[in-house]
Amino acid sequence: MFDFANILFAGPCNARCPYCIGRQIDPRLSVNNLTEFPPRNLDRFVEMIIKHEIRQVVFTGTTTDPQLYRHEARLLDFLHNRLPADTQYALHTNARLALKKLGTFNLYDRVCISLPTFNAGTYMKMMGVRGVPDLAAILDRARVPIKVSCLVNDDNVAEIPEFVAHCQLLGLRRLVLRQLYGERGEWPIIEGLSPRGEYRGNPVYDYHGLEITRWDFDHSESTSINLFSSGVISETYLLAETRI
Questions:
Q1: Residue 139, CA atoms < 13 Å, CB-side half-sphere
Q2: pLDDT over threshold 70, residue 183
Q3: Distance of CA 168 to CAs 161, 165, 219, Å?
């Protein structure tokens, strides 16, 4: 019934993205929980994960990065002791703390890194802070599969061919190119590429061994349950549509 379960964190962030999903969400859902253990209503959320036989649990955020959560490793251990052994855990992060918290980073089963560019100026525009994470070093030191999620807009669309080529050169295996929720614009992937399949209603391409998914939230067939930092549990995949 559900593809995955999101545990959402909120609070001060180490980036200032102009397009932060947290700006579209009712602020009552995103209270600061970076120092709370356990997260509010976690026991009920665990019950729902077991009831619906969900085997994918994601640490992500609304207004912050989950690696800023003070009890990240402790919460992973807590869930390992309460959920079925075949449950997989994923981290969705901006990777600004990845190398500093590499031990915890490698506790997950897989990681998705939000990275819109390798260009310092473009990164500042899209992330609101300086310092592009060193993807090459992260890939070299990671012991878990990594996917990169790249938001595409007017700031970086012209860089996408070069961005894709560099990701492939670094040995990345999976890349998602996504547009903003509700955006209707059209932009190219890589000239000459044709879809070779689809995932959850979105086209998938191959670029010299690099799997590229073009992600459109409006066409996605994904489903999830979501534990907001306030303790509210929602079954709405599109977080911005959740209402109190």
A1: 15
A2: no
A3: 11, 5, 26
Give strand pairing partners of 212.
Answer: 175, 205
Selected residue with higher pLDDT from 33 and 244 = 33
* Class of residue 105 by CB neighbours under 10 A (exposed 0-12, middle 13-18, buried 19+): buried
Domain count, the chain: 1
Closest CA to 226 of 8, 79, 48: 8
Q: Which of 139, 110, 151, 111 is nearest to 15 (CA)?
A: 151
Residue 208: per-residue pLDDT: 94
Do residues 132 and 120 make contact, with C-beta atoms less than 8 angstroms apart?
Answer: yes
Is 121 contained in some domain?
yes
Quick check: is 190 in a domain?
Answer: no
Averaged pLDDT, 53-66: 97
pTM, 2 dp: 0.94
